[in-house]
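## retry 2 of 3
previous attempt timed out at serialization; input unchanged, resubmitting
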Amino acid sequence: MNENLGLLIFLLLCCVVPGGMLLLFALLGPRNPNRVKETPFECGLEPLSQPEGLLPVHFYLVGMLFILFDVELVWLFPWARVLREQGTLAFVEMLFFLGFVLAGFGYAWKKGALEWEK
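## retry succeeded, writing output
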């Protein structure tokens, strides 16, 4: 337990400090609402019009898929760095990992998640 005590304290501080700051700001922060503060800010210019609608859900789906596959493939860089030291088992494990990533990519492609226009 002694070796994990530092990690436990760190995680506790990571939760308490931001939470405490948000709580103090909510309790002690100034509240001076006025018309100027509540208007949308667009690079110092008066807004020409209000936004007409939300982006299509497909835009968010493509963005999430990009982040998902990007984060998964980031693991290739440390793996490539230590491949010679790890041996054949690490290579086979990475082939399985890439197989799962490609299967997920193929599934998303087959379902039409990557098609921008329908």
